[in-house]
Amino acid sequence: MARQYIDCREMPSESNCTVAISADSEKELVEAAVQHAVAVHGHKDTPEFRTRIAAAIRMGTPPVEEPGRATL
C-alpha cells in the first residue's frame, strides 16, 4: 500500500489553510479529508463532494514547499 495525501494548500480557500492529511488507504484519507472540509471549511458532505475529494488525492507525501492551488 502506497502513502497518499490531500493538501489544503492546493485547494481554493479564503482561509489559506495549510493542513495536509495523509493515509495508507483512499477510504481512510477521503473520510479524514471530508471531516476536515466540513468542520473547518463549511463544505457539505455529499457524494459529489466526496468524488471531488477523491480526485484530489496525490500519491506519496505532501511537499514541504507550497504547491500551486487547483480548482475543486
Automatic annotation (TrEMBL):
Pfam families: DUF1059 (PF06348). InterPro entries: DUF1059 (IPR009409). This is DUF1059 domain-containing protein.
